[in-house]
Amino acid sequence: MKDERLRSKEWKKYIFPLDKLYSVCYTYNMPGEQSFGKVREMLGEKGYTLVRISGSHHIFKKPGETLLSIPVHKGKVKPYYVRQIEKI
Question: Are 34 and 82 in contact (CB under 8 A)?
């Protein structure tokens, strides 16, 4: 009886192009985690200053604006918050 399943080498040649496509789509369109230093610079350029730190949340303030809370874990800021900062 002949085995109809793909051998591992044959299977990989179909999967790897999808991995490359996935990495190209998501690395160029979405910002990844940023260091807190970089995020702090971005906010500084937009007129925000660090007011206080409460646990892992760094609170920023801009005159005439509401407070902005950015959670920081292991010195990194999640992509969601980076995108929100870019929209400001």
Answer: yes
Per-residue model confidence as pLDDT tens digits over 23-34: 444 444 456 788
The DSSP output letter for 59 is: E
Cβ-contact 54, 60 below 8 angstroms = no
**The total number of structural domains that make up the chain:** 1
Q: Rounded to an integer, what distance in angstroms lies between the CA atom of residue 38 and that of residue 34? A: 7
25 lies in a domain?
A: no
**Per-residue tokens: 77:** 């800021």
Q: Residue 81: inside a domain, yes or no?
A: yes
In a domain, 47, yes or no: yes
Q: Is residue 3 part of a domain?
A: no
Q: CB of 63 within 8 A of CB of 48? A: no
